Amino acid sequence: MISRRPLPVKDDPSKERSRGLLYGRRKGKTLRDARAKAYEEGLARHALDLSKPCTAWESLFDAPVSRLALEIGFGGGEHLLHQLDQQPVTGFIGCEPFVNGMARLLDDAQRHEGRDRLRVHEGDAREVIAWLPDACLDLVYLLYPDPWPKLKHEKRRFMGLDTLDLLHPKMKPGAELRVASDIDVYKATTIKAGNAHPGFERSDRNTAEPWEDWTRTRYEAKAIREGRTPAYFSFFAKVLPQ
Questions:
Q1: Domain ranges (residues) in the chain
Q2: I need a surface site. Which of 125, 134, 186, 219 has the fewest CB within 10 A?
Q3: Against a cut of 0.70, is the pTM above it?
């Protein structure tokens, strides 16, 4: 169920319109030849094909897996590759609309032992969530999402009731949603949405402390240097009453 797609040379306005709820730029610096090659070959190997139904998620991967995790907006991919090491029986799906971040991950992944348990989607994570079968996800990561701090952009924030409505049925009972942010307005949004949704229960963990299997990303290190304080939230999926 892997798609094969050509390397995009430049952004196409029609693609921008088709991105639905995604906002902001999609491509930054021009990729160097070696990374562009890794990007093209990596997509051919790892990209999901959402045009076909997903009836058995285990078959998405080239190695045996018994758990499924989703990372929404993986940036440069440091955390995703770290978790591939930490969780050897877990298949990982990473979603990232930004070409340069996807290229970095796919370049690094070609030298990673866990690459057979990696699949990616270059686009809106909501497309993957809608495509997945119910009750398949064990763990979901939303780490340092775009905060859209202005009030007029509040609906652009990924952490909201509409997204949780879409995500909840795809998570197993007891599955964990992890959210990290260094922006106060997004921390408040996370607490508000997580507490308001009947399908999730917020953990009482110390939000100032990262998870035990955490690795610090370049973004987080920069945020701390600039004086911002990260917070780490966990929400667990509950069975909704009939």
A1: 27-237
A2: 134
A3: yes
